[in-house]
Amino acid sequence: MVDNGRWITVEAWCLKYSELENTIHKRVSSGAWARGEFYSAPDGGQGYINELRAANWLEQRGKLEL
Questions:
Q1: Which of 21, 36, 39, 60 lies deepest, with the highest CB count within 10 Å?
Q2: Which residues are bridge partners to 40 per DSSP?
Q3: Where are the beta strands (DSSP E) in 1-66?
Q4: Measured between alpha carbons, how far is 10 from 39 in angstroms, rounded to an integer?
């Protein structure tokens, strides 16, 4: 089975990776982060980010510093 990562809240992502919520929403609205793959907001509620996929996306762009 392939590990697709876990889903964490946008707030948890922002705290852990020192990013702003606006940055997340810009990536989603521009299509850089596809809904259902990187980002999900079931029934328009709380937003969630697939941590593994999003962290890999940032790492590939050299923007991830932990």
A1: 39
A2: 48
A3: 7-9, 39-40, 48-50
A4: 9
| 7 in Cβ contact with 47 (< 8 Å) | no
Phi-psi region of 62 (alpha: psi -120 to 50; beta: other; left: phi over 0): left
Maximum Cα–Cα distance across the chain: 34
Rounded CA separation 27/47 (Å): 13
Q: pLDDT (tens digit, 9 = 90+) per residue, 1-24?
A: 456 779 999 999 999 999 999 999
Q: Which residue is listed with tokens 């762009």?
A: 61
pTM for this structure? 0.83
Answer for the pair 56, 37: CB distance below 8 angstroms, yes or no: no
